[in-house]
Specification:
The complex is a heterodimer of chains A (about 325) and B (about 280).
Chain A lengths: L1 H26 L16 H10 L6 H13 L13 H36 L4 H15 L2 H15 L16 H35 L2 H8 L4 H38 L5 H10 L3 H29 L1 H6 L1
Helix pairs in contact in A: 1-11, 4-5, 4-7, 4-9, 5-7, 6-7, 6-9, 7-9, 9-10, 9-11, 10-11
Chain B lengths: L2 H12 L2 H18 L35 H37 L1 H16 L2 H11 L4 H12 L1 H14 L3 H8 L4 H37 L11 H8 L8 H28 L3
The chains are: A mainly alpha (about 325), B mainly alpha (about 280).
Chain lengths: ~325, ~280
């Protein structure tokens, strides 16, 4: 329990640091934020009042705490481009991102478990070698380029699958969504699988050389039985941490992927926000994404303690 | 770095043909990048009659939408990509090793603050931060190096800190502390040489990461912008001709993939030599 509390405290501290970094990053941006509100016929005095009303004349640290206070109350401000609330804009894009990231993450985990287990079990066998090459490709391939290749092959050349967006015009059926999901999802699944498979493979190898496996073998348990009943459980443990750690690259990967496939998610919103210099929106997305990553890591830590009795009982 | 490690490293390479292939490939690309001006074709020579020619004898990689020789462009693009990868690695390794050793060696409040900073930076959505920073810095090689270096030192710092913590307890470090040597000197003389193998592994993988990040940034029309080109920015402009000239997307992408995969594999080989399992 004490461990959990200290982790929780650390996470709050990290989020605090993230908020400072985020604020500094945006404040360091060139350009006068008041200029987005200024119209040509405004007088100098009016602009000064506007600046004061926006709180821009206050010292920086005061501005920071006002901003932080607002965020803690769930007020992320308004977009500079279309004046709509930042939070609702992000929330309406969220389902698309969750759909893409969730599906690919789930697929990656489901596929990498048997692959990792068997390539660890039959180390240096044919399957292991193929998996190894593929996972090197997976961690080294620029995901946007992989996306382009898939678009060329399946959309341009073969014409089987749509290459952009989430739905066809006027078609909101589930099947249509799946057809749109296949390409971006394949890219992300492949890239994530590469990481996961490597981890599961190496922990399988470690687990297979441990005493309990020898005991089980001596008692005459079948090899597949040992692999799926005992090794799997133990090899899955580090996966919790790996999942937590991979969140950061996962989010970045999703942003790039959404951009390539014009997937209408938060990642695409983020890139649009940057290109239009929409600072409240950039800050909102950065803060929420960082929150997701920090909470994800915290959950991974807590889950790890709960699942692994060795750590749980060690206190 | 001790003699043993060097010997094992040479042995590791001798027994692993793929590792040699990776090394040769990287050296080849580096050499091609350095010697690019020797290639007699001008990468910026526009020719209206030679637009979008497929690979042929005169143009091994074909020509792009302005009739420029794509092989020459790939050579010069590689120059930018590899240079950025290398410089960003140097920067992030320098920051990472400094923060890691200081944090681990001094400990206490310095350690806590630095490590939480690392945590915070590792919780930011890297790609977004990269794009934001790039949007208000001038595009160009120097700024791309700074941005990537600034966003990739954290994992090195973490690993180095861990190693420093265990080295700190070794007798020779304890002796040098008791004998009153200055802390900076101990770090440079006793800690840094002993963490070199780990640093080499991280640095190798870091080059791969930096090249990937640069290519992603340039692909979105940020980072490296014309007239300079990198493999990433070439991919960016190739997108419009996907239907008519798919080879424009294939060549730079293949080059990125081959470079990155070689660096990743070499890092893994060095790691295996260092910590055989």
């Amino acid at each position: 329990m004490r461990k959990v509390l200290s982790k929780l405290f650390q996470s709050v501290l990290i989020m605090f640091l993230v908020s400072i970094l985020c604020f500094v990053l945006v404040k360091a941006a060139p350009g006068d934020p008041v200029m987005t509100y200024v119209q040509p016929n405004m007088s100098e005095a009016y602009i000064e009042t506007l600046r004061e009303n926006l709180g821009l004349t206050k010292p920086l640290y005061v501005q920071y705490f006002i901003w932080l206070g607002n965020i803690l109350r769930g007020n992320f401000g308004y977009s500079l481009v279309n004046m709509r609330p930042v939070l609702s804009q992000i929330l309406e894009r969220l389902p698309a991102t969750v759909c893409l990231m969730g599906t690919s993450l789930l697929l990656a985990v489901i596929l990498s478990i048997p692959l990792g287990l068997f390539s660890g079990k039959y180390k240096n066998g044919a399957l292991d070698k193929i998996t190894s090459v593929l996972s090197y490709v997976g961690i080294s391939i620029p995901n946007f380029w992989f996306g382009i290749l898939l678009i060329y092959l399946f959309s341009v050349y073969l014409g089987w699958l749509p290459s952009i967006g989430m739905h066809s015009e006027g078609d909101h059926s589930f099947l249509d969504l799946v057809r749109h999901l296949i390409l971006p999802c394949s890219v992300m699944t492949f890239v994530n699988m590469a990481q996961f498979t490597r981890y599961i493979r190496s922990s399988t190898i470690t687990e297979l050389s441990s005493d309990y496996v020898m005991v089980q073998t001596a008692y005459g348990m079948s090899e597949t039985g040992i692999l799926f009943k005992h090794v799997l459980k133990n090899a899955m443990l580090p996966m919790i941490t790996v999942l937590g750690m991979s969140l950061q690259s996962l989010v970045s990967g999703a942003m790039i992927c959404e951009q390539v496939f014009s997937w209408p998610g938060t990642g695409q919103l983020a890139v649009t926000a940057v290109t239009t210099f929409d600072y409240p929106l950039i800050m909102g997305i950065t803060m929420l994404t960082a929150l997701l990553i920090v909470v994800g890591n915290l959950l991974a830590d807590i889950l790890y303690t709960i699942v692994d009795p060795r750590i749980r009982h060690a206190g | 770095m001790n003699e043993n490690f060097k010997k094992n490293l040479i042995l590791g390479f001798k027994t692993n043909r793929l590792a040699i292939a990776g090394l040769v490939l990287i050296l080849l690309f580096a050499l091609a990048a350095i010697l690019a001006p020797l290639y007699p074709v001008d990468p910026n020579a526009i020719s209206a009659t030679d637009r979008l020619l497929g690979p042929c004898m005169a143009h091994p990689f074909g020509t792009d939408d302005m009739g420029r020789d794509y092989f020459a462009r790939c050579l010069y693009g590689g120059r930018t990509s590899l240079l950025i990868g290398f410089l960003a690695m140097v920067l992030s390794t320098l920051i990472g090793v400094t923060v890691g050793t200081v944090s681990g060696f001094i400990g206490g409040i310095v350690d806590i603050v630095l490590m939480r900073l690392v945590d915070a930076l590792m919780s930011l959505p890297t790609f977004l931060i990269m794009v934001v920073m790039n949007a208000y810095l001038d595009a160009g090689v120097r700024n791309v190096v700074l941005i990537i270096g600034f966003l990739t030192w954290m994992s090195i710092a973490r690993i180095v800190r861990g190693e420093t913590l265990s080295l700190k307890e070794r007798e020779y470090v304890v002796y040098s502390r008791i004998s009153g040597q200055r802390r900076g000197k101990i770090i440079l003389r006793h800690i840094v040489p002993n963490i070199m193998p780990t640093v080499i592994v991280s640095a190798t993988i870091n080059v791969a990461q930096a090249i990937l990040m640069e290519s992603a940034m340039s692909f979105f029309g940020l980072g490296i912008i014309p007239p300079t080109s990198s493999w990433g920015s070439m991919l960016s402009s190739s997108q419009r001709y996907l239907t008519t000239a798919p080879y424009l997307a294939v060549f730079p992408g293949m080059l990125i993939l081959l470079t990155v995969i070689s660096f990743n594999y070499l890092g893994e080989v060095v790691r295996k030599v260092y910590e055989p399992k």
